[in-house]
Design a protein that fits this description.
Blueprint lengths: L1 H16 L11 H25 L3 H12 L8 E6 L8 E6 L6 E7 L13 H11 L2 E5 L11 H15 L6 E11 L1 H16 L8 E4 L11 H5 L10 H13 L5 H6 L5 H7 L6 E3 L2 E3 L9 H10 L11 H4 L5 E8 L3 H13 L4 E10 L10 H23 L1
Parallel strand pairs: 3-4, 3-5, 5-6, 6-9, 9-10
Antiparallel strand pairs: 1-2, 2-4, 7-8
């Protein structure tokens, strides 16, 4: 029995520790041998513990994230909690020492699959961006799924963004220099907020958007990148993680998880409406094709309305809205299931005349910004992002 137990244990250790790293992907030793195995172990153990404890997986994940992060912005940064709306969780105003007021400002929306995360969880990279750009950064929070499913998180972000703009004078912010930034699901929410503001006004009050590996569509989880990085060599976000997040956000539960793993949730009618957005694109000198599948049954029909809602999938926003978007910066991690989402979105915006700066980062993985302290490529991402914000603000201010 002891020998058998040791053998099983060895297999388990090998599974969590070993996995080939694709050529070109930059993982630090700490990431490869500590963080990646830890993420994989957590994803394996959380469902087991949830069943034993009679609780839900996302609640355990939230507790783990909260316990793993401490609020430490470093020297030269002041943090002021704000909560202008009682139903919306506390946001943070991050101000670097010596900033000139009224200051340019960045509204930042955190990621976490619409299910986990908070401004505090991203305090280190957001404070560093504020420090490097010498801008105020308002890290806004929102109610999380599945307790608050779509469109509540979007509505919270829209409400908070409008509040920042409307209260610019009291916040010592220059209202002509307000930008928005978000990563992953936060990038999705940021894009959706800017699209909505574009719909409401001929002149968008957001003067530039900076989207880090955003989710831009949820109509298919079978793009080339979803399949190529299905098991995610970085350990951060795999295909099934994304399906879970989508179901929690859209439906408030993961009851359809096993079905969605192997079947499409897109009807033929919905497919006809959006096929034009999934035309082949070129990457690394190769044509990438996306086979958009559809199937007509009760399962796909119940998802159609949400699949086509551009507040969920910014890729599908009407032309008249997208044409009015401010200059857009999109940062794409090459080794990411969401890579093709961003390729499609960047192309559509460019075709509609939006000024787009699209940077495909060849050695990066999803969620890199949060690991900038232990990964040289993630550090370069933070530096490049900050430099782009500074340069754009300078050029915009001179206009």
């Amino acid at each position: 029995m002891l020998v058998e137990a040791m053998a099983i244990g060895s297999i388990g250790v090998f599974y969590f520790l070993y996995s080939p790293v694709p050529e070109g992907l930059n993982l630090s030793r700490a990431h490869k041998y500590l963080i990646r195995p830890l993420f994989r172990f957590i994803k394996w153990i959380v469902p087991i513990y949830a069943r034993i404890a009679g609780t839900q997986r996302h609640l355990i994940s939230r507790r783990l994230m909260q316990s793993a992060r401490k609020r430490d912005a470093g020297a030269g940064i002041s943090i002021k909690p704000i909560q202008p709306f009682p139903e919306v969780p506390e946001s943070l105003i991050i101000t670097p020492e010596g900033v000139n007021e009224p200051a340019a400002a960045v509204v930042y929306i955190h990621g976490g699959g619409w299910v986990v995360g908070s401004p505090s969880a991203m305090i280190e990279p957001t404070a560093e961006v504020a420090r490097r750009t010498q801008m105020k950064l308002i890290s806004i929070d929102y109610r999380l799924a599945p307790e608050h499913k779509f469109p509540t998180p979007f509505q919270d972000c829209l409400k908070m963004t409008k509040w920042v703009i409307e209260n610019a004078q009291e916040l010592c912010i220059d209202p002509s220099r307000v930008y928005i930034m978000g990563d992953s699901a936060g990038g999705n929410l940021a894009a959706a907020v800017v699209n909505e503001l574009s719909k409401e006004s001929d002149e968008n009050p957001i003067k530039g958007q900076f989207l880090l590996y955003p989710i831009t569509q949820t109509a298919t989880f079978d793009t080339f990148s979803y399949r190529a990085f299905e098991n995610d060599p970085s350990g951060v976000l795999n295909r099934m993680d994304m399906i879970d997040f989508y179901l929690w956000y859209s439906m408030g539960n993961t009851d359809d998880r096993s079905h969605l793993k192997t079947h499409t949730h897109l009807s033929s009618k919905a497919k006809q409406e959006i096929t034009r957005y999934y035309q082949p694109f070129e990457l690394d000198g190769t044509e990438v094709q996306i086979d958009l599948k559809s199937h007509d049954d009760e399962f796909s029909e119940k998802f159609d309305e949400i699949n086509l809602d551009y507040r969920m999938s910014p890729l599908f926003a009407p032309e008249d809205i997208l044409r009015k978007l401010p200059p857009t910066f999109i940062f794409t991690s090459y080794f990411d299931v969401l890579r093709d989402d961003q390729m499609l979105y960047a192309r559509r915006l460019k075709e509609l005349g939006v000024k787009v700066t699209h940077k495909v980062l060849p050695d990066l993985f999803h969620g890199a910004l949060g690991l900038y302290k232990i990964n040289s490529s993630a550090q370069r991402l933070l530096e490049t992002l900050s430099e782009d914000v500074v340069q754009f603000n300078r050029s915009h201010h001179m206009q």
